[in-house]
Amino acid sequence: MSQSPYIFDATDATFQQLVIENSFHKPVLVDFWAEWCAPCKALMPVLAKITEEYQGELLLAKVNCDVEQGVVMQLGIRSLPTVVLFRDGQPVDGFAGAQPETAIRAMLEPHVQAPPAPAGDPLEQAEALFAAAEFAAAEKALVALLSEDNENARALILYARCLAERGELGEAETVLNAVKGDEHKQALAGARAQLTFLRQANDLPDPAELKSRLAQDPADDEAAYQLAIQQLARQQYEAALDGLLRLFSRNRGYNEGQPHKTLLQVFDLLGNDHPLVTTYRRKLYQAIY
Fold first, then answer.
1. Which of 40, 156, 247, 263 does the annotation list as catalytic?
2. Active-site annotation holds for 162
3. Cα separations in angstroms, 50 against 39, 78, 96, 214, 232
């Protein structure tokens, strides 16, 4: 049982009260899981983190499908993990299978009141919102900030990244071109890398197709590289870094050294203090030497 007041277990006996009745007051996210389901266990901490950030505006109910067969049959749950969002006594949205954090937040956004913005400096607030994948809220805060100071380099770079996240790649590039000075050179390089990955991904095969190709031929370097780009466009950074490093170790000369160049672009994108950068810089160094 979670120690959080916003996260709880629901059973056949308590589902009506804890999920249906609660959903008339706050949206309730229901996580259908089982002990044997590895993707379920990987998804749980992501759902818990998101729920906690909403500070009571969202509740999370966990249903163990090995035990609570009544609810499972009633709702027709056929695969795990399955997550269903209830409002006003009815299921209104959801998904089946493990999903990236950004996709889960996007699903919740139309249904759940945005979490309170962190206190402090307005730019720091916007950066925290962006880090939490609350891109619309971050963009709104940045528009207000830039209306008072339209030469704030940090704000411009972050604003461009918000634009890129909603597909306005041309406008994002225009904003980046307006950034003056070299003080935020690494952040600027990271934002430009983000635009590059998003543009490249638009012209590549679907990730499912690329994974199928790799399942048939693990040495398909083109599929491995293209899958990493698709993962980067979806902010699946650890999976992308792992794939790029394996490709570099196997064929460092692929496409004129593109795996190495892309790894360095991701390091710029995430920043030197990011734990993934620390880990994969060390792994890259070991692979080189």
1. 40
2. no
3. 17, 25, 17, 32, 21
